[in-house]
């Protein structure tokens, strides 16, 4: 992993909507080739933070500095089952989707699209309609779309949501490979940190509009999360696993296990 240059620096970033403070003094930086989990429950400000980094949402105060191009995989894209758009067409739009009119055929473009389809393991369904693909297959295609211009920073908003266990593992492995082999900085938001733990270099944990950032083992701690949430949080390590417990506050804590206000995560 190349850690010589910072790809993203967020400094004292605050974002407010009418009557509500969404983010308050969020600061962190990511180096080339790092994988960072952006963790928080629904409404914690994950999407707002990503949109502000992209310049789609104005900040109230603070700064965002980007060193290189950015690729983005949004949280929700609904594909019409009848749309005659193949997986390779979606990837190709990453090259010329900002141009007016229909894209002209090009051997060079086809080679780039084919190379990116191979890179994400999507060759087998490259010519299938995008609406006919499974959730995991669609995520591969969307990542290829975001990566085809070879950005230095890849932002993904809840890419693991509603995927089965195997698809989640495949997508996490794919993101990790882009980071380790190509030096891409990956910032991926998730409600559940568990699938990302084996690949995360650092974490940005959002709650109450504020963030705790750093290495996972220094952030997922009783004193840090208690300060972040504003009430007592127990972080207990048992047999190489971590239990994060907040009695009576399960709806606020990411990775809540059914029937118990507990979430479990492994710290590598």
From TrEMBL:
Family: Belongs to the ABC transporter superfamily.
GO molecular function, one term: ATP binding
Alphabetized Gene3D superfamilies for the sequence: P-loop containing nucleotide triphosphate hydrolases
Protein name (database record): Metal ABC transporter ATP-binding protein
One GO BP annotation of this record: zinc ion transport
Positions of the ABC transporter domain: 8-233
Keyword entries, A-Z: ATP-binding, Ion transport, Nucleotide-binding, Transport, Zinc, Zinc transport
PANTHER family noted in UniProt: METAL TRANSPORT SYSTEM ATP-BINDING PROTEIN TM_0124-RELATED (PTHR42734)
